[in-house]
Write a structure and sequence with these properties.
Layout (H helix, E strand, L loop, with lengths): L3 H5 L18 E3 L4 H4 L7 E3 L2 E6 L6 H4 L1 H9 L4 E4 L7 H6 L7 E4 L4 H14 L4 E5 L7 H11 L6 E6 L11 E8 L3 E8 L9 E4 L8
Parallel strand pairs: 3-7, 3-8, 4-5, 4-6, 6-7
Antiparallel strand pairs: 1-2, 8-9, 9-10
Helix pairs in contact: 6-7
Length: 215
């Protein structure tokens, strides 16, 4: 066994550091931002795997970053679940972005173990189109994210976990980790900390989606 293809054939979890993985995830969904898609291994947010989004504060545009995903999935009558967002999303604003509120679920759980249990059950049931979960604790044990990642492999859609930026130095089973930073003029900077494939150390800036005004 001396070829790259022979080695890569041992497991879909193997890839060369200087190239993109082959069949590493079930699929992907476009982020809605062409420049970002170019930096994601499957040319979009991975499905069947955790995407960990880290920031040092909330309300910097992290939800608007995922507006294209929520709009696409709800238009396909797939349900998007928001688990414990720090602020209550404003329905009319979401609707102005083209998100169908009939296919949006907000779930609140006071205690972290209850949140983790609920997310894990939703992943295993594979009955939703997408999950957004806020886990503000910076000291989650590595095995917690490992369990979520294992459950995510049974899920057909994207799974986003929001965590504080101070957790970026901790071990995480999430195949994709992205640091988010606010920028002026309705922009957001992203730095990919971990992905399947070669690392990208530079910051990428995107223009956040604006509400569609209807007359």
């Amino acid at each position: 066994m001396d070829s790259k293809q022979d080695l890569l054939g041992l497991s879909p979890q193997l890839w060369w550091a200087d190239g993109w993985p082959q069949n590493a995830v079930q699929g992907s969904i476009t982020s809605g931002f062409e420049a970002l898609d170019q930096e994601l291994p499957a040319r979009g947010w991975p499905c069947g795997a955790l995407s960990e989004l880290l920031s040092n504060q909330t309300g910097i545009g992290e939800l608007r970053l995922l507006v294209p995903v929520m709009r696409q999935l709800t238009s396909q009558q797939k349900t998007v679940m928001l688990m414990n967002p720090p602020m209550l999303p404003y329905g009319p604003t979401l609707a102005s972005h083209g998100i169908d509120l009939k296919h949006l679920i907000l779930l609140k759980a006071k205690h972290v173990p209850d949140r983790l249990w609920a997310v894990e059950q939703c992943l295993r049931s594979n009955s939703l189109g997408c999950i957004l979960a806020w886990l503000p604790q910076s000291d989650l044990r590595p095995e917690v994210l490992r369990r979520l990642q294992l459950s995510a492999q049974q899920f057909e859609g994207p799974i986003f976990v929001f965590r504080p930026s101070m957790a970026q130095g901790q071990v995480s089973a999430a195949p994709l980790r992205v640091l988010l930073l606010p920028r002026p003029r309705q922009r957001l900077a992203l730095r990919i900390l971990k992905r399947r494939g070669p690392l990208h150390g530079d910051y990428l800036e995107i223009d956040l989606p604006q509400p569609c005004l209807r007359r």
